[in-house]
Specification:
By secondary structure, the protein is an alpha/beta fold. Helix content is 31%, strand content 20%. The chain has a single domain, classed as Rossmann fold, CATH 3.40.50. It contains five helices and eight strands. Helix 4 links the parallel strand 7 and strand 8. Helix 2 packs across helix 3.
């Protein structure tokens, strides 16, 4: 059985042509989180919306998040102990928490403190992989690898691929399907 997949875009969303939008056409049981304002990356609001969505689910799901969406998803899972609602995660090109404040993107609020101190970072207790890029402008490669380790996730080195978005040439992306299928296989093995 294929788990339900929740797609969580990052700051400014995942428009047509983005790999997350393509991904939604690849699995019949995929939903995109709807109640988030993608132009206002406010961690507390995003995390609360993800928590609310997960609370309403009757079966565990796989979360596929990108950029700031990774930060919001990991915060939601860790803060509310929602491991029973999440069977696995695929975090792709996470954004650095230093680039955001409690009010939004740091460029808009340069005098505010970053969310790094309020973000709940600890082992998530779920299966998962973090896809990292060696030249991602949104998070340094070494920091991304450390974050994956802190969360208890596998690290998948995608190479020099930018932020893994439309600007870096990532529309249809069959490799992401293989990564999700692998997570689903691991989940099934753990259930049996």
């Amino acid at each position: 059985m294929i788990d339900k997949i929740l797609v969580i875009p990052g700051y400014k969303g995942s428009p047509n042509g983005h790999w997350q939008t393509w991904l939604q056409t690849q699995y019949p049981n995929t939903e995109r989180i709807k109640a988030i304002n993608h132009h206002k990356p406010i961690l507390s609001q995003w995390s609360a919306q993800i928590q609310q969505y997960l609370d309403q689910q009757t079966l565990p799901i796989i979360i596929v998040a990108h950029s700031f969406g990774c930060l919001a998803a990991l915060d939601a899972i860790a803060r509310k102990q929602l491991q029973s609602k999440v069977s696995g995660v695929l975090f792709v090109a996470p954004a650095s928490p230093y680039r955001f404040t409690s009010y939004g993107h740091r460029a808009d609020f340069p005098n505010e403190r970053s969310i790094v101190e309020t973000l709940t970072i600890r082992a998530l207790g779920v299966l998962g992989t973090m896809v990292v890029s060696r030249n991602d402008p949104w998070m340094n490669y070494d920091h991304a690898c450390c974050l994956a380790s802190d969360l208890g996730l596998l690290t998948y080195d995608a190479g020099y691929v930018g932020h893994i978005n439309i600007d870096s040439g990532y529309g249809p992306w069959p490799e992401v399907k293989a990564l999700i299928d692998d997570i689903q296989l691991q989940v099934q093995r753990n259930v049996n």
